[in-house]
Design a protein that fits this description.
The chain is built from 13 helices and four strands. It has 327 residues and is an alpha+beta fold. Strands 1, 2, 3 and 4 form a four-stranded antiparallel beta sheet that branches. A hairpin with a 4-residue loop joins β2 and β3. α6 runs parallel beside α8 and α9 packs across α11. The protein starts with a helix and ends with a helix.
């Protein structure tokens, strides 16, 4: 009898241990504490739903806590939609914050659109904030040249508001800056003189605004203010100087070409003279052989040449003395 009771007691102990182990495993797998928090927060979610999240390798807290925040804010969202967005790589907290902010600001923003904006890589909560509180984008200094050749360096401040409907697929801030710069360059470039722009800088703002630069972007341009206009270089004068230098180099090249041709012609003539002088002794020898030139005739010719050389030498000395006296 004692043996029977001892066996029964041991069986109860083993059964109790097994029950405690199963309960411990179930409590670890199913977040009962989170379920209780959700229940008292007004979020209806089943324990098996939480267990299914565990099986899908989704942390239930990442879904339930944003759902609690949305429920407290009066938003009617589906847990399945939140889980699907989470599995797609989205940020549920940013989406919920954006939906709450848009509702408070009376901006229509469905969950599907907010999720699409978030998955597109944009910060949907920041976009809603910019839609409520416009943002100022400051451009770098933009260089533009008026028709008189004077460079103007301008800096603009662009006040923009996010356009929720164009956040998906719309261009960003870089496009706004590029288009504003293009409008400023066009305005300055069409001015006859740079003084017109300095006297009326808001003409740039009007021209840029009339171009509809926010088309196809994620923003709506509210205003463009010219913050600073500085006078830069005289581009026209610099271009003229560069052109004059280029013309000078071309003229020098042509002059050098003509000088080279003249030197070549001179050398060619000297070669012909040398060739002719080389034929003189041969002609004299032939004249002696043929009897056309006598010895006395040859000596008279040499005397005449010597006399001519002496006169040329005296003439050069006199010219040199005259030049020295003039200096």
């Amino acid at each position: 009898m004692d043996t029977f009771f001892d066996g029964t007691f041991i069986g109860f102990i083993i059964l109790a241990i097994l029950i405690l182990a199963v309960l411990s495993l179930a409590l670890r797998f199913i977040p009962v504490g989170l379920w209780v928090t959700a229940y008292f927060s007004g979020v209806k979610v089943g324990l098996f739903t939480l267990a299914g999240m565990r099986l899908r390798r989704v942390n239930p807290q990442d879904i339930i806590r944003p759902q609690i925040k949305a429920t407290k804010a009066g938003l009617d969202l589906s847990i399945d939609d939140l889980e699907a967005h989470h599995l797609a790589g989205g940020n549920i907290n940013d989406v919920i914050d954006a939906l709450i902010a848009s509702e408070r600001a009376n901006i229509e923003l469905p969950f599907e659109q907010a999720a699409a904006i978030d998955l597109a890589g944009r910060n949907v909560f920041e976009a809603v904030q910019v839609s409520v509180n416009p943002k100022v984008i400051e451009t770098p200094k933009i260089s533009a040249v008026a028709k008189d050749g004077i460079e103007l360096l301008s800096k603009a401040k662009v006040t923009v508001r996010a356009n929720i409907e164009r956040l998906v697929g719309g261009a960003g801030e870089d496009t706004i800056i590029a288009r504003v710069g293009e409008g400023i360059v066009t305005t300055v470039g069409s001015a006859p003189v740079h003084a017109d722009i300095l006297e009326n800088p808001d003409s740039m703002s009007k021209t840029v605004l009339n171009k509809g630069l926010d088309a196809g972007t994620a923003f709506e341009i509210l205003s463009i203010d010219i913050a600073d206009v500085d006078v830069g270089r005289n581009i026209g004068a610099q271009l003229q100087t560069d052109q004059a230098d280029a013309d000078k180099k071309i003229a020098q090249a042509k002059a050098e070409e003509q000088r080279s041709m003249a030197v070549a012609r001179e050398q060619e003539m000297q070669a012909k003279v040398t060739e002719a002088q080389a034929e003189v002794p041969l002609a004299i020898a032939e004249a002696f052989r043929s009897g056309n030139l006598g010895v006395m005739d040859y000596y008279n010719m040499k005397n005449v040449q010597a006399d001519s050389s002496m006169r040329e030498s005296i003439s050069r000395e006199v010219n040199d003395e005259d030049e020295n006296e003039e200096q």
